[in-house]
Amino acid sequence: MPDEKIVNSNEEEKLPIGPPLKVLEYRTISRGFGWWSAAVLVESWGNKRVSVYLWQKSDTGWKRKQKYTIHSQERWHLISEAIESLIGELQ
């Protein structure tokens, strides 16, 4: 999508992620109209993971609606191959 952009983490407020997860780095995928999605590199119990989060803004702050975690480069390879095989069907 041409008007969507990925924003670096230093341009945003703190992510709504708490202990025991430690945010190492993140990139906002989109944010607006009460929704925020980001790819996040987290550390938990000495292990690094990449998760894709979707939050919705409420009266009390950001609430997580969805989260998908990628645990390894091998797993990402399988995921990305599956998506690449389908992405051509989108308009």
How far is it from the N-terminal to the C-terminal residue, by CA? 11 Å
How would you characterize the largest beta sheet? 5 strands, antiparallel
How large a portion of the residues is in β-strands, by DSSP E? over 45%
Strand order of the largest sheet: 1-2-3-4-5
Description:
By secondary structure, this protein is an alpha+beta fold. It has one domain: Nuclear Transport Factor 2, Chain: A, CATH 3.10.450. It contains one helix and five strands; from the N terminus they run βββββα. It has a five-stranded antiparallel β-sheet with strand order 1-2-3-4-5. A hairpin with a 2-residue loop joins strand 4 and strand 5. The termini are close together.
List its salient traits:
49% strand; 91 residues; 16% helix; alpha+beta; 1 helix; Nuclear Transport Factor 2, Chain: A
Brief sketch in words of this structure:
Helices cover 16% and strands 49% of the residues. The longest helix is centred in the C-terminal third of the chain and has 15 residues. It is flat, with a radius of gyration of 14 Å.
